[in-house]
Amino acid sequence: MGTDGVSQSGLYEYKLFGGLADCTPKLCVDVYMDLNFRKQWDQYVEELHEKTYDGEKVIYWEVKYPFPLSNRDYVYIRECREMDVDGRKIWVVLAQSVSVPQCPEKPGIIRVKSYKQSLAIESDGKTGSKGKWSRRYDHESYRQRMYVLARCTKRKTGNFTKNSYYKVNVLSSRNT
């Protein structure tokens, strides 16, 4: 597994790439898209739900951050598509922030207004999967020191990776 850090644009951008030897791409995507299951395994979820506004499914997600940092929240839309590319089945998930009046900013929580996420996953040719996950966002009102953010983000990214592997294994054992 590999990672990248901050992009030259000044936006925070994280990329993970690698694979899970014992998990099919379909199972990975199912787990990734399951918000209710995420609430069970992700200790950083403060609030997470999907509602339909003006015919569009919108996700609200508040993420717990450790003291002295403020919690962040995201309002975004996402879509998952299964594609056939030169005989290879690839699942692609795209998400981006939106602004909807039904999800106003909350006092004391930093709204991440510029947010994009992508996931591309396919079979590793055996029994597992390989893919690339990327998240890009800008903490527009965040003015704390960079080393605090870098330290917390590194820990959260590492925990996300460990928890992702755990959640896939838990769901896999439920489906057998």
From TrEMBL:
Q: Which residues form the signal peptide?
A: none
Q: Which GO terms describe its molecular function?
A: phosphatidylcholine binding; phosphatidylcholine transporter activity
Report the principal subcellular site: cytoplasm
**Domain START, first and last residues per copy:** 1-148
Which keywords label this protein? Answer: Acetylation, Cytoplasm, Lipid transport, Lipid-binding, Phosphoprotein, Transport
Coiled coil, from the record:
none
Any one GO cellular component localisation term in the record: cytosol
- The keyword Transport is annotated on this UniProt entry: yes
Q: Where in the cell is it found?
A: Cytoplasm
Q: Which InterPro entries is this protein grouped with?
A: START-like_dom_sf, START_lipid-bd_dom, START_lipid_transfer
**Could you describe the subunit structure of this protein?**
Interacts with ACOT13/THEM2.
Q: Which PANTHER family match?
A: PHOSPHATIDYLCHOLINE TRANSFER PROTEIN
Name under which the protein is recorded: Phosphatidylcholine transfer protein
Please name the source species: Otus sunia (Oriental scops-owl)
